[in-house]
Design brief:
Part of the 50S ribosomal subunit. Contacts protein L32. It comes from Sphingobacterium tenebrionis. The protein is mainly alpha-helical. It has helices spanning about 15-30, 40-55, 60-70, 75-85, 140-155, 170-175, 180-185, 190-200, 210-220, 225-230, and strands at about 35, 95-100, 110-115, 235, 240. The radius of gyration is 22 Å and the shape is globular.
């Protein structure tokens, strides 16, 4: 039973856990993205985000408080000089966790955690939305119009896993990089896709995207019978002859 278990100890003593999280937070601040296990990434998020919030108030007291956690002068300097300016308009949620393929050997769940504002591929500046209050007598027409507007603003996505060689994890990475439809994948060359997968982590280095654009084009044109014939000639996304 897990009654009352609010903190994941990560199989370590309290002092070891604090030291590990301090080192991971320092690495995240310096490198803006690190790869670790999913459990450690979730623990790190609750550890580092309050420190980032603290950095928005650049005072001697705030710096000393953050240094008590990180114990690294360079990391504290970067946090208060660079990162605090970058996240000034963001009201929380400074980090993003994206799952990766399980680790070979022990099959541990892997993920990378990054600072949202430092991702140049699909990072966007945060906008603080003002909450609007409405009276009880508001008509249903306004609610219907708001729902239709929200549905129209939501971009359509395709099931990229239909392409031979693309699994759910790779589809998540491509969608996060802005490639969410067959047409977008067809227009993206293999080198660009390989670069995106390499940045996502070493677990995706074995993927071969050479035929993904061709398969995506057939899917975009609705030629699914021809796509199935092409997939029958492939092995893991690449041609058997190769």
């Amino acid at each position: 039973m897990r009654h009352g278990k609010k903190v994941n100890h990560l199989g370590r003593t309290d002092s070891h856990r604090k030291a590990m999280l301090a080192n991971m937070a320092t690495s995240l601040i310096k490198h803006k993205r690190i790869t670790t296990t999913l459990a450690k990434a979730k623990a790190l998020r609750t550890y580092v985000e309050p420190l980032i919030t603290k950095s928005k108030n650049d005072t001697t007291h705030s710096r000393r408080t953050v240094f008590a956690y990180l114990k690294d002068k360079d990391a504290v300097t970067i946090l208060f000089r660079e990162i605090s300016e970058k996240v000034a308009s963001r009201p929380g949620g400074y980090t993003r966790i994206i799952k990766l393929e399980n680790r070979l050997g022990d099959n541990a769940e892997m993920a990378f955690i990054e600072l949202v504002d430092y991702n140049e591929v699909y990072g966007k500046t945060a906008k603080t939305e003002k909450k609007a209050t409405r009276r009880r007598g508001a008509t249903k027409k306004k609610a219907t119009e708001a729902t239709e507007t929200k549905a129209a603003a939501t971009p359509a996505t395709d099931d990229l896993t239909i392409v031979e060689g693309i699994g759910p994890k790779i589809a998540e990475v491509l969608t996060a990089a802005g490639i969410s439809t067959y047409a977008e994948l067809a227009k993206t060359d293999a080198e660009k896709v390989k670069e995106i997968l390499t940045e996502a982590g070493s677990n995706f280095n074995t993927a071969d995207p050479t035929t993904w654009a061709e398969q995506a084009q057939l899917a975009a044109d609705g030629k699914f019978e021809e796509l199935e014939k092409l997939k029958a000639e492939l092995d893991g996304g690449k041609k058997v002859d190769e």
